[in-house]
Structure prediction request, 341 residues.
Amino acid sequence: MSLVVLFPVGKETSADTYLTFCNLNNPDTEAEQWYPPDWLDKYGQRVVGYLGPGGLIWNGVPFPEPAGGEAARADGVLSATVEWPDEA
Amino acid sequence: MIGLGLNLGLGLGAQGGGGAWSPSSLGASLLAFWDAEATSSLTLAGSLVTTWTDTKGSYAQTQATSGFKPAYSATSFNGRPGLTPDGTDDYLGLESQPFGSSFEIWALVDQTALVADTGVRALVGIGGSLSASRVTLQRAVASGVNRAQLNIGTGGGSVAVTHPTLDFSGRHVIRAVIGPTEANLYGDGVSAGAATAAVPSLGTTRTRLFATTSTVAGNFWQGGANAVLITQMLDAGQATNLTNFLKTRGGIA
Prediction:
């Protein structure tokens, strides 16, 4: 499982800030985006993939978290699991 | 003295890609072959998979979002090439369904989700966005054991075929037969039993690897994959050859 950052309900702006940080520091420069801006877990929490070791393996090596990452995700919680919504 | 060695090369058995038989021997019966050992079929960003193109029909399974890309390694599948989706959110997708409503799905995979993880994990999804309009080959947990399962949409609902004996943990060859009126499931060449009546009613929206075909991808596969194939309905001989080919590749007894 990959690590993700879960942002509690009400912290959507913080989630957007972290996603912007990830998009700017993503080594996969050909990708359209690091993560979608609207993925929610079953509790309505915003989910953003973690840009760091345990979240991204780049060229076979755990990707070190870029400077500023910890601050950018301060309102979120690192998690090894996600409870996605049940399919409608 | 001159030694004259003659090698007549009469091996007829499947030898995991190194002998005479390979999936291409299926001819027109082979519809798609996503092969991790065909390095030219993979487009990578670092070691992440952006595109996996099948070597028969050129159907490209893609992923444009970094966080959703499976990892590729030349040695991750028992020392052989493989893709490893993370089980959290990784998948590949093709926004079309060119295989019709009757076909077979084959896969050489390494299933690593534990039985304590009781959610369904999809390996291959084909069809529409609803369970009544798609086929999903998946891992489920039944009575505390990992099982291979095939879910077939029939229009008004769905029919599930669960392999009753294969412990779907680790490396296995899985074969799902979706016929026009009945379905079956095979694990390492062993049938799940008598065929199950099911008339598939499949949409044409998409084909996904490692997730369902729901509008928002879900039920993500956890484990590795070396090969995924789509074929027409195979005869017994073809099925035996393909089973043996994949078992040899996977180091499966």
